[in-house]
Amino acid sequence: MLKFDQVLHARLGSLQEASSVWSEAVSKLEKSKDKAETGLKGKAEKADWKGENAGVTQAFVRKTAKEFGDALIGATSIRNILRDAHTEFQAAKSELEKLVEQAPGKGIRIDQDGVVSYLIHPDRRAKDYDGPKPEQADFEAMRSAIKAAIDRANNADDVASRALRGLVGTDKNNFSGTSYDSLAAASKAQDAEDAHAAYELYKKGDEATPAEIDRLNALFKANQKDPYFAEKFALEVGPKGSMEYWADMGDPSDGSRLGVDHRDKLKELQTNWSMTLATATHSTSPEMEQWKADVVKAGGEPIQTRGTSPYGFQVMSNLMRVGDYDDKFLKDYGNGLVITERKMTHDGRLPADRAWHAMNGMPSHLNWQGGDLGNDPMIGFMEGLGHNPKASTDFFNSSIDLTPENAKDDKKIDPFDYFTKDREWPEELNDKGDRTKEPGYNALGHALESATTGHPYDAETEGLKDVRTKENAEVMQKVVERYGSDPKYMHEQPGIDDSLGKMGAAYIDELNRSLETDSDSTMEEKRASPFGFNDAKGHSRFGEEFDTGLLWNRGDAINFMGIVAQSEPGHSTLSAAESLYTTSVLDQVGPKPGTNFDDMDLTNARTTLRIGSEAQGIMDETRMAQIDKDYEKDSDEHKKAVGKTTEWVKFGVGAVAAGGVVALTGGAGGVLVPLAAETVGGAVTTFIGMEAGDVAEKYEKDEALKEKSDKLKEQALHDGKELSLRPGIAYAEAPGWSERQYQYLDEHLVDYVRTSRLHARDNVLPDPYEKD
Questions:
Q1: Which of 549, 620, 526 is nearest to 579 (CA)?
Q2: Which tens digit of pLDDT belongs to each residue from 299-347?
């Protein structure tokens, strides 16, 4: 793999010279070919040879003449490859040179390894500095452009080197006769060659050796996200071919040792196969459109192996857990899947597991990713939605016609209601051998994360932006209404609480807008609210009706945040998001560092800290109430659970600020928190840099566990109150304030908030969930 400095400093003169030399060779060979065909071969054809000469010499002359033609084809191909490779390398090199030249003018430095940083760090700028001040978006754009240039060079290098090796061939006595008119043609030919090689390995099924499975995985990896390879492979194998292959791999009765001895290889194969088919579905060729239609058609048909007969939907859904499948295909597939399940369950009169339970033989092992065996096809489908935000948003905002063949009836189903309330999710066998509904609800949570945030649920945190739309918000309104209406929905859906916490974090700005209002039922924000985010014209990203209107009223916001915070991951994620968001609002609406005392208006700063502290109080109180309900008082489990209520502070460590979004990485795995401004200010930077000790460590020690639960709970609530002051402390300690100003802010903001937390107890909080 080529690196930044290798592309930037590449010496391309020799390559250009080689291209020119081969161009000369082509000209000479064209003349030699003409002479060979008209002279050598022509005379041989006209010669009246008899006997052995006619059988040997004449054939030899013909072959020799043909070699001149093959030599010309080979030389022309080599020239074309070298020419196009030089063009690609030069373009990549020129792009990097341009970026390096432009970077200082943007206040950016690019080091010899291509790492981007400030030309002059903000902390080292002079007071009168008036040079460029790059923002996170500028750094992201520069990194993206650098990566694109290096990728271009690497792709050209890979294709050219493989093509040249192929043109040389392995036969020392014959030219290969392979013809490439361009580097792009060589790339397409290589894709077709790899697709066929993968097809040949596919035909071996579960009789393939571990080495052959490795080879198949290598072919998939080498062509990852390559559209031409993906389409060629998908079409060559066929829709039913993929299903039959994967069902055969999951048949535990046919004696194959792959699933016993090489689970890791099958896990990798499932990932690679899924990504390949996902890429293929983005093709709109007539052949692929038919392929997609055939997949949905085959979903309700059994796929027979020696000992199992899973339905096509069961098999295919497990090949959708990874990768970004096409929007329309996911919608058609999901509609077909739901329609089939409703028919098989007699319109819901039977539980879903009756539809997908193996009636004969052993259950198939269709999922090697872990968590479940893959018998419920809705799990894989939900994971597919989780990787495609547009498809998941459309799906949960739509309705499904259960009888599309009958235009006269109006038999429809609401997918959001069906999956979050009406469907009885089957229990699945997890990795520990336990039967649980967690895999299904975990996947549902992933799909809802995607639908509400506009990002794949497991998206890389670097470079993420706040991309929420009105359509995303419409799904989030449903989420808050459903899961804030009764604690049973979250508590009876194991595995969804962490996703609800992440969704709440992604809408923490709108939840704060609702909390600020005086009435529990009003749908109008408080005038001049410091929360939320409108564009330069004062309009909300969710539509003009939300310029001053709320997504939820105060009562709904309290219920949702309170119920989600009853769970440990929900409480941790929302608490961290609340603190970071509150700090960003202070950066935006509070007086800027260095402001004179006479000019300081702390009204918005006080409001911001008051609502942030109240929100933390709501979450702490509801979490404590749930702990009291879940564990026997004074038990070790109760005390340890109390101790963990303050561990969320660790989320501040490793937070990544980018483009108006903070991505919490300190244990939350990519939780998006919208900021009040695109640029991270001094308070947020200070907050992120605060030391986070092991607050809960004392609860793990013997001496702490000897204390009564009530005392430990009182201490934990006190700790929670102190932690809710962190945004105010970070604001007061931000660079630019004098010592006197720091003391003033500490007195007028931090001490003020200590009492405001008591407002949390004035709220009507949701009841804890009581297990049966």
A1: 620
A2: 999 999 888 899 999 999 999 999 999 999 999 999 999 999 999 999 9
Q: Which two tokens stand for residue 124?
A: 């080292």
Which backbone phi and psi does 219 adopt, to 5 degrees? Answer: -65, -40
pLDDT, tens digit (0-9, with 9 covering 90-100), for 673-718: 999 988 788 999 899 888 765 555 555 555 566 678 888 888 888 8
Q: What is the DSSP string of 340-355?
A: HHHHHTTTTTS-HHHH
For the chain, helix (H) and strand (E) counts, in that order, are 35, 9
Residue pair 683/583 in contact (Cβ under 8 Å)? The answer is yes
List pLDDT tens digits, range 479-498: 999 999 999 999 999 999 99
Helix (H) or strand (E) holding 661: strand 661-664
| Mean pLDDT confidence for 161-170 | 73
- Show the DSSP H helices in 250-317 as ranges: 258-261, 263-280, 286-298, 312-317
pLDDT-wise least confident of 91-105, 166-180, 437-451, 562-576: 166-180
Here the tokens at position 584 are 């960003």
**Residue bearing tokens 């489990």:** 637
Write out 126-182 in H/E/C secondary structure. CCCCCCCCCCHHHHHHHHHHHHHHHHHHHHHHHHHHHHHHHHHCCCCCCCCCCCCCC
Q: What is the pTM of this model?
A: 0.85
- 450 vs 406, more confident: 450
Compute the average pLDDT of residues 541-570: 95
What b-and-e string marks burial along 9-23, b requiring 16 or more CB atoms within 10 Å of the CB? ebeeeebeebbeebe
One-letter amino acid for residue 563 of the chain: I
Q: Which of 467, 742, 716, 745 is nearest to 608 (CA)?
A: 745
Question: Which residues face 110 on adjacent strands?
Answer: 116
Strand partners, 436: 428
Name beta bridge partners: 428.
Answer: 436
* Exposure on the CB side of residue 501, measured as CA atoms within 13 A: 26
Structure tokens at 329: 């295909």
CA-closest candidate to residue 585, choices 563, 609, 568, 566: 609
